[in-house]
Amino acid sequence: MLLKALLVVSLLFPFCTSIDTIEMDQHVKDGDLLVSKENIFALGFFSPRNSSSRYVGIWYVQKDQKAVVWVANRNDPINDTSGVLTIDRYGRLLLYSNNMQNIPVWSTNVTVQTASFSCRAQLLDSGNLVIYRDNKSKKFMWQSFDYPTDTLLPGMKLGVNWKLGIEWVLTSWKSQDNPGTGEYTNRLYSNQTATPEFFIFYKGLTPHWRSAPVDAGTLVSNQDEMYFFLKNDSTSTRVVLKDSGLVQHLRWNNADREWKELWSGPKYRCDLYGECGANSKCSPDNIISFECDCLPGYEPKSVNDWNMRDGSDGCVSKRVAVSKCRNGEGFMKVARVKDPDTTKAARLEKGISVKECEQVCLSNCSCTAYMVIESEGRSDCLTWYGELLDILVYTQAGRDLHVRVDKIELAENSQNSKDFLKRRGMLAVLMLSVLLALVLIVSLACWRIKKKRKTKETRRHPELQFFHLRTIIAATNNFSPVQKLGQGGFGTVYKGVLRNNQNIAVKRLSRTSEQGVEEFKNEVALIARLQHRNLVKLLGCCIKGQERMLVLEYLPNKSLDCFLFDHTKKSLLDWQKRFEIINGVARGVLYLHQDSRLRIIPRDLKTSNVLLDAEMNPKISDFGMARIFHGDQLQDRTNRVVGTYGYMPPEYVVFGRFSTKLDVFSFGVILLEIVSGKKNNSFHQEDHFVNLIGHVWQLWSEDRALEIVDSSLESYTPDEAMRCIQVGLLCVEEESKNRPSMSAVVFMLSGEASAPSPQQPAFSLRKNSSGDAAVPSVSKGSCSINDVTITKFEGR
Ligand SMILES: *[C@@H]1O[C@H](CO)[C@@H](O)[C@H](O)[C@H]1NC(C)=O
Ligand SMILES: *[C@@H]1O[C@H](CO)[C@@H](O)[C@H](O)[C@H]1NC(C)=O
Ligand SMILES: *[C@@H]1O[C@H](CO)[C@@H](O)[C@H](O)[C@H]1NC(C)=O
Ligand SMILES: *[C@@H]1O[C@H](CO)[C@@H](O)[C@H](O)[C@H]1NC(C)=O
Ligand SMILES: *[C@@H]1O[C@H](CO)[C@@H](O)[C@H](O)[C@H]1NC(C)=O
Ligand SMILES: *[C@@H]1O[C@H](CO)[C@@H](O)[C@H](O)[C@H]1NC(C)=O
Ligand SMILES: *[C@@H]1O[C@H](CO)[C@@H](O)[C@H](O)[C@H]1NC(C)=O
């Protein structure tokens, strides 16, 4: 491959002594290579990975040919192999293609106006493509090192030259297939009044992360310019800013013939700029609990978000009323941190001792913190004026930050208060204690009033919460498989734990309905307003791009079917419990049909959608799905029905017609299943090919209805059981108009209203043969967990 390339090159430049140079009468065609003297770098045309576009680039010859370190026409690809690179009399590199005959696709920008016939371009062994005017002058008219793409090589500079008005930055590729200018870039932060310098990596225009302060050994700073460079230790090394925003410092390992990573970033969530907002610190080691923590004297701005492990709002002063200006204030140490962001309001004063630095900060009431930087036997003083941003806690490295706090914070801190005692004596202590006690009493009273008011308010407005994706990610440990509770027709459900230790269930919706974000929010907000003790509480949602997630109350017990149809767990449901569950489900459905203003028709009631809380109280889940997914439209469009066979009445299965009577039918099936402990759609009776409904009807008409009661029950109340069976049969009647309303159901179950005689129910005579829609096969032992629906979307 290399030999072939060399051959091509020597054929191309038959009269040239070197193949690393293009002179004015020469050019590089697609397929030719320019190779540096020591055979280290090559320049030529290439196509990235899956792309067919052609670019002019520089890459390693012997190492990793895929590692392209520089791209000329990164935003001006050529779509065929007609590209030709040449140099003109003004020392400009020009790239032509067939598609644009006389206009170069790309060119360098050289300001020299006088033409010369001795311009030449040369690829050096450092990877630098340079343009000379003639032999004598070794000064480059132009060099590729001044126009980095995504890679820093030894010999290149990253930073700024104020005199020439040049800024050297890396810019990521758009993607691995497209070297075009991507969204990540980095700047060496260059405010001479506020060293130390560090890199800020931007995503678009917003800071993405901030590096640790740049090591003085790799930084040059003078009047004209300031830049970072890679130390040349004779091995091959490079820094690359990848299209994902990841920065890697790599070194070539000759033995393994691969690039090894020396360091990379951002590594932790804490590295991300402002992850914890203002006046807070981020500890990567605290990932299990919560990485954000307020600085001394500060408290979360939004306790709610904080509890949900979202620190982006940051912290505010605990006591606005207590001045931190000549009012007994002081400093508290936060050990081993990355210096807060100095780009906004910070000041560096050189040659100032530790004690003086404290005084510098103390004497200016706008000063919020100081840090002493000790190097080479000298100490400099760095002070901040305003919000403290992007503080990361290191376990080993880092410098101590001293944060200005008011006198109360100071006193509360035991160590500092010792100094305080010495200085002010016992009297001050006494006065302070009295003051403290007073403050404590007052704040306690305030807190109580606040709390009372708050609970009142929350009771009045059960607000829908919008969760940040990162809150959900933190709570579910990034959707860890360990947290997965189950999977259903609407998506996967994960268990999550919020910062305040509240358990939640996160339903990550797999199907996207056609509704937009606003419509989705509206539906979720409407559904969240439905609050009933027999409904699973919808706490909020999370929307990020195409992702839609519902955040629900977490119930420790599984769904009703897991108990009802399990030989051992059945015993946990005695008759009294079963009767309570039946009544609870009935009240839940009644609320949805009538009491709520929304008139929800869940359409998918079944035992697996009835969850049990710690006290085995039933809670209906998934009741809003038809609304969220626009069930009716879905059905119109695709001719499919939402629901689960065995729980659906004939008018819905056959005609797709639905009304509240659909739910009444499903409720009837659930009721009979609870009483019998048997599944309707997997019911087998030795001689008779009938389903549960048919079997109950048969026994009812033979006056043997109570025989259907689950034989595993040690005892039951015949009165109540009989009432249940009768109501159940009424609910599953063939004609929807003959089925009772849910309010009638509730009354009849309680015995306050008498029930009429049921007629022959729907599906009662259907045979349990394969292909019969009424009695499909259902995998045995399948059981849903927490909030999982096993809804099937099947054609009719
Ligand atoms: C690129 O091509 C490879 C194999 O040809 C394929 O596996 C990969 O998915 C492609 N990547 C993209 C982003 O198209
Ligand atoms: C390349 O792009 C030009 C316009 O930009 C177009 O006219 C030409 O047909 C394209 N050639 C190929 C081979 O796609
Ligand atoms: C070329 O450089 C000049 C002066 O530095 C600048 O004004 C101009 O925008 C540049 N043109 C291009 C195409 O980069
Ligand atoms: C440049 O130097 C080369 C050899 O070093 C020589 O052959 C060539 O004539 C020189 N060109 C000019 C324009 O001086
Ligand atoms: C790096 O160092 C080697 C020898 O140590 C030297 O040959 C090479 O020119 C240097 N490269 C740069 C870019 O300074
Ligand atoms: C440098 O920082 C100071 C004080 O923080 C600020 O006033 C000044 O505008 C900054 N200068 C630049 C060039 O950003
Ligand atoms: C305090 O510091 C700020 C920011 O550097 C400065 O603008 C202000 O003048 C200083 N105030 C005093 C009283 O020195």
TrEMBL record:
Annotated GO CC locations: plasma membrane
Residues covered by the Protein kinase domain: 479-763
Alphabetized InterPro entries for the sequence: Bulb-type_lectin_dom, Bulb-type_lectin_dom_sf, EGF, Kinase-like_dom_sf, Pan_app, Prot_kinase_dom, Protein_kinase_ATP_BS, S_locus_glycoprot_dom
Signal peptide positions on this chain: 1-18
Region listing for Disordered, in residue ranges: 756-781
EC number(s) recorded for this UniProt protein: 2.7.11.1
GO-annotated biological processes: recognition of pollen
Topological type in the membrane: Single-pass type I membrane protein
Superkingdom: Eukaryota
GO molecular function: ATP binding; carbohydrate binding; protein serine kinase activity; protein serine/threonine kinase activity
Residue span, Bulb-type lectin domain: 19-144
Domain EGF-like span(s) in chain numbering: 266-304
Apple domain ranges (all copies): 325-406
Binding site residues for ATP: 507
The keyword Secreted appears for this protein: no
PANTHER family assigned: NON-SPECIFIC SERINE_THREONINE PROTEIN KINASE, RECEPTOR-LIKE SERINE/THREONINE-PROTEIN KINASE SD1-8
Family designation: Belongs to the protein kinase superfamily. Ser/Thr protein kinase family.
Entry protein name: Receptor-like serine/threonine-protein kinase
Organism encoding this protein: Pyrus ussuriensis x Pyrus communis
